[in-house]
Amino acid sequence: MLIKASIALAFLLPVSCLRCSPSLRRVRSCRASTLKMAEGVDLAELMLPSGNPHINVEFSSDALFVSLDVNVTCESEEAASYTKTKNTRYLITDAAQDPKVVRLRCPAPNCMLRIHPYDRGFAHYERFTSGHHELCKSMKAATFGPGNRQYYDIQMPVGAEGSFIASEMCFQVANYNIQLPVPGRVGGQGAASFLRTSSGDDVQVDRMRKADVSCFPAEQWEKASQCYAEVGPPFGIAVPTFVIESRSISQSRAEMLETMEVWMEAGVEEAWLVDPIAISYNQWLRRLDGNRVGGFNVLPTFGQVDVYVRDPATGNYTITTFEKPESVQSVTALPDFVMDFQRIWEMAMQDSEKYF
């Protein structure tokens, strides 16, 4: 849900204005690259039949490795047959009594699933989301492009770290905004941004993404709202000025770096990648039963904050990295906003230490 707040229009400040507590700082520059989604080598991809099948996804209770059980309830036996044929590698043989129900078990080491609908376009995306309210809370990204480009990425939540840390960051940004004279919009984990960028020979690729925190200045949000009311989804102008992505325990660094590329490629002015993960995913999996799992080895990337800042003249961007800063100030997008990270690092560390 979007939280109404106040945001001043963004203006450019020198990079030197970015302040933080004493910590190692690295700066590097990147050229704008071709837009692409994060692709994991083990990403399970499901093909759906035509019509409006209903999807239910849950963690498998009896697999020896991380996997997701998916029930696909089709509108006909023909659609069920199509689903079985297209997803043979994941099929649980004779697992369903109803001939219209297909049961699949998908390996998901990163707790992620990509769904390819048979039908295309934004209209199908709207039907899918309206019919899958709970599942779509876990939808992190979607595309509506031509051909086989349309897909919906489901990131199943694991652990509490990502949730309470994202809430804390959203609270700090919203608290900053309400003190400003001009109201804008602050979005939390459920707020969708609709993006349009060019790829290749000016081919338009429409997509949706959700950041942990997103900010729209008042004037920008007013235009987006008006466009949505008059002509439909606000493609091209519903790009946040400022976003924060917080890595969760099941997401790899490589995946998150790809995500940041997507945001910067779409036109975001400033974006932060926050890494509050203290232990490895394998250690976290071993602790699921509540047992202590040995020594507590903190990951070297714990507490890392990468600040991406776009050059409006060239479209290129710089990345400044801070290692476990006490605070960081926005460079361009949110003037005088300072994020207090001390509480965030403390909460993340406490949650991890109790298992060791």
Q: How would you describe the overall organization of this protein?
A:
- With 356 residues, the protein is an alpha+beta fold.
- The chain has two domains: 2-38 and 161-353, Alpha-Beta Complex (tt1808, chain A), CATH 3.90.1570.10; 44-109 and 112-155, no CATH class.
- The protein contains eight helices and 19 strands.
- The strands form four sheets. It has an eight-stranded mixed beta sheet, with helices on both faces. The protein has a six-stranded mixed beta sheet with strand order 3-7-9-8-12-11, with no helix packed on it. The chain has a three-stranded antiparallel beta sheet with strand order 4-5-6, with helices on one face.
- A hairpin with a 3-residue loop joins β11 and β12 (203-210).
- α4 (161-177) packs antiparallel against α8 (342-353).
- The longest helix is centred in the middle third of the chain and has 17 residues, at 161-177.
- The two termini are 36 Å apart.
- The model is unreliable at 1-24, 31-41 and 233-237 (pLDDT under 50).
